[in-house]
Amino acid sequence: MISRRVALQSFGAALLPAHAALKPLGPRQVISLDGIWQIEQGGLDNPPTAFTHSVAVPGLVDLATPAFTEVGHISSQRKAFWYRRSFQLGQQLPEIAFLKLHKSRYGTKVWLNGNLLGEHMPCFTPVEFDARPHIVAGNNQLLIRIGANREAIPADQPSGWDFEKYRYIPGIYDSVELILSGAPYIRNVQAVPDPIAKTVRVVAEIVGGKQPAQCVLRTEVVELKSRLTAGNAASTSVSLAAQEHKIVDLVIPIRNGHPWTPEDPFLYELQLHTGADSAKVRFGLRSFRFDPTAQRALLNERPYYLRGSNITIGRFFEDADRAALPWDAAWVRKLHRQIKSMNWNSLRYCIGFPPEFWYDIADEEGILLQDEFPIWLLNPKATSGTISPEYPLAEKIIPEYTAWMRERWNHPSVVIWDAQNESVTPESGKARDAVRHLDLSNRPWDNGWGLPGAPGDTLESHPYLFSRAWGGGKPEGGKPFLLRELATTKTSPNLRPEQFNLKGPIIINEYDWLWLDRKGNPTNMTDKVYASMLGSGSTVDQRRRLHARYVAALTEFWRCHRKAAGVLHFCSLGYSRDGSIPRPEGGATSDDWIDLRELRFEPYFAEFVKEAFAPVGLMLDFWADRLVAGEKLVLPVVVINDLSSEWRGQLRLRLFRAGQPISVQTQPCTVSAYGDVRLNFDFTAPAAGSYRLEAALVKPGVSVTRSLRDFMAE
User: Fold this and answer.
1) Which residue, among 396, 444, 400, has the nearest Cα to 418 in the 3D structure?
2) pLDDT at position 3, please?
3) Residues 501, 398 within the same domain
4) CA atoms within 13 A on the CB side of 271
5) E strands, 340-409, where?
6) What is the pLDDT of residue 565?
7) Predicted pLDDT at 496
8) Three-class SS of residue 71?
9) Residues 522, 588: one domain?
């Protein structure tokens, strides 16, 4: 049965920041203003008299030609960058015209044909300006001023501060559009899917024009690929006074409803028509929540374990080899496919939002996203010699959280709103609590090191065991962490003192502290770590092999103990900078590519870490690095199954010396859906020498998955 509801609601300007990434259907038009713009540096008050550079929009200012110097640094050369371009309109001017900037930084002020449209301080969320009063038939000129650095915006405005960044490069880094429509027009749409009932609730914001009007909102759901109609509905007649906003609320049954999952990212298109305006938006028949009792995720009400990584787009923006890659759709799609090739089904977009089309690609490729708002302040006291900015107050964050949610809430890939990273502040929690009701899908929230707001909200854990050798950056470092210590390490991931006694689903979305740059050299936070394990004369090959093996072992440890709802490696895309340079200029973290443009992972990483994230995985629960020859012991192996069906195969244990197997044992292995099992092998330590143990899952027609340990017998 189709339900219909029309409700009058009053909106303030702060609650109407975005059209929820709607795409046009006739008669609506969207004119893309992406492309090459003129650009010049200057002051904040007056535009330049001449424009002698050009730059791509979307993009960053460091892509300008000819290039500017000192971009991303505080420089006496400029306070601002000014963008300029012209566009043409026909003689028929529509009643509605909005100029939308999807993302720009730092502080945006816009003029159209010499008339001020407005100013926008947020750096990570879209803004729409009413362009209709100043738009003309024929030639129009658009002028946009952005601040040259973070200092151009108020100190209490989130600016993307990152302790491990050095350059804050400004730019219009997402698309610019002119949205043209008749009235009544569709301001925003929220699609609320129910995969169990096989329905979608449609909550549309309809806005009247200059004159009172009546309209009927007609909707249709079509399968994105087949274009087959899956459902439709229409509202009762809606009466709108001039400029009035109303909510139209419909529930549409979906025929043969097909759920969206990372394994099968099936998409629908919702089309909406008022008669004077039409638009469309995509959605997936997907629900997501955490079971607060079982402390694991439920995707479409079925258990689901998150296996994944992180993308730190803000750090990648300052990578020397980044160029225009973030705006190359083919490259971004390949990036997400390479991520899935590692047995990862999820990502955290960490401390920053990429361009909006990245979310479309995540929808299409099937990746679950923990979408993290760019606040990372730890605490406002000194941290490693660097003073963080003051925390923004909730009143500053609430409008940005609102715009963020309205822009993203139709993406099936977005399953967790992440309020901030590693920060201890009540303000993000206050802001979360003020806006979470806006999301009718009721996605869970993460709040960094702050307190959760509901039983299904996640707790963030970052068990950086190997950071101990770094010693907080002290010249002498600290006590090295040895892999054999995992035998006595707590299997429950650590939480911050503020969260220690809380019960809730835990996501490990950072761990290891073993970064190498793309050349295989330590970063300035891992140099002491590798020196403690390999000595001062280690080779690139030695470091890369150890890195991959240890990340794999840690991944097995955290996954197989089943104390975390998700395990996400850090990180699959960031910067790669010279780690021999002290912080903050030198690189602190890195990703694992050896060819960024072609997106080739470092081979050891691709081999060992991929296996550690296999859906049916295992852990050889043996961590000793030395045994006495002839010593008898039991070797436990834990096998886990993330799949919804039982797994049957063989568990094999082999002992290698000099790369050759010298003994083998096997036993049958059955693991129930979403289950785990612990099996044992009797083992006698061999004669003195260097050895490798390999536990492996073997099944005909399926790639072998291994867990490897090295030891010495004496």
Assistant:
1) 444
2) 37
3) yes
4) 18
5) 346-349, 368-372, 382-383, 386-387
6) 98
7) 85
8) coil
9) yes
Average predicted confidence (pLDDT) for the chain: 94
Q: How far apart are CA 576 and CA 510, in angstroms?
A: 18
Q: Report CA dihedral (236, 239, 244, 246) to the nearest 10 degrees.
A: -20
Whether 512 contacts 466, CB under 8 Å = yes
Instruction: Assess contact for 170 and 60: CB atoms under 8 A.
Output: yes
Task: Classify each residue of 662-691 as buried b or exposed e, where b means 16 or more C-beta atoms within 10 Å of its C-beta.
Answer: eeeeeeebebeebbbbebebebebbeeeeb
Nearest Cα to Cα of residue 360 among 296, 265, 442: 265
CB-facing half-sphere around the CA of 276: CA atoms within 13 A: 19
Question: The CATH number of the domain where 396 resides is what?
Answer: 3.20.20.80
Residue 19: pLDDT band by 50, 70, 90 thresholds?
Answer: low
- Residues 162, 378: contact at Cβ < 8 Å? no
Task: Give, for 546, the enclosing helix (H) or strand (E).
Answer: helix 540-560
**Cα–Cα dist 7/236, whole Å:** 12
All residues at 6 or more sequence positions from 362 whose CB lies less than 8 Å from its CB, including other chains: 336, 347, 369, 411, 413
Regarding whether 500 and 421 lie in a shared domain, the answer is: yes
The mean per-residue pLDDT over the stretch 562-587 comes to 89
- Euclidean distance between CA atoms 617 and 126, whole angstroms: 41
- Long-range CB contacts (< 8 A, 24+ apart) of 132-139? 132/93, 132/94, 132/95, 132/96, 132/97, 132/98, 135/89, 135/93, 135/97, 136/89, 136/93, 137/89, 137/90, 137/91, 137/92, 137/93, 138/88, 138/89, 139/86, 139/87, 139/88
The pTM of the whole model exceeds 0.85: yes
Sign of CA dihedral 111, 112, 115, 120: negative
How confident is the model at residue 14, as a pLDDT?
A: 32
Based on the fold, state whether residues 401 and 252 are members of the same structural domain.
no
DSSP-assigned letter for residue 508? E
Structure tokens at 207: 């806005």
pLDDT band (50, 70, 90) for residue 8: very low
Count of domains observed in the chain: 4
DSSP 528: H
- The tokens describing 123, both together, are 């750096």
The backbone torsions φ and ψ at residue 399, rounded to the nearest 5 degrees and listed phi first, read: -60, -35
**CB 593 within 8 Å of CB 537:** no
Q: Which residues contact 477 (CB under 8 A, 6 or more apart)?
A: 469, 470, 471, 528, 532
Instruction: Say how many Å lie between the first and final Cα of the chain, rounded.
Output: 75
Q: Say if CB 673 and CB 646 are below 8 A apart.
A: yes
> What pLDDT is stored for residue 16 in this prediction?
46
Question: Does 252 share its domain with 389?
Answer: no
The reply to whether 584 and 628 lie within a common domain is no
Distance between CA 235 and CA 191 in Å, rounded?
15
Quick one: DSSP state of residue 472?
A: G
Asked if residue 383 belongs to a domain, the reply is: yes
- C-alpha 587: how far from chain center: 21
Residues 664 and 557 in one domain: no
Identify whether 584 is preceded by a cis peptide bond (ω within 30 of 0): yes
Residue keyed to tokens 């502290």: 513
The parent domain of residue 454 ranges over 288-613
pLDDT digits (tens, 9 = 90+) for 23-32: 999 999 999 9
Nearest in space to 32 (alpha carbons), one of 82, 93, 87, 113:
87
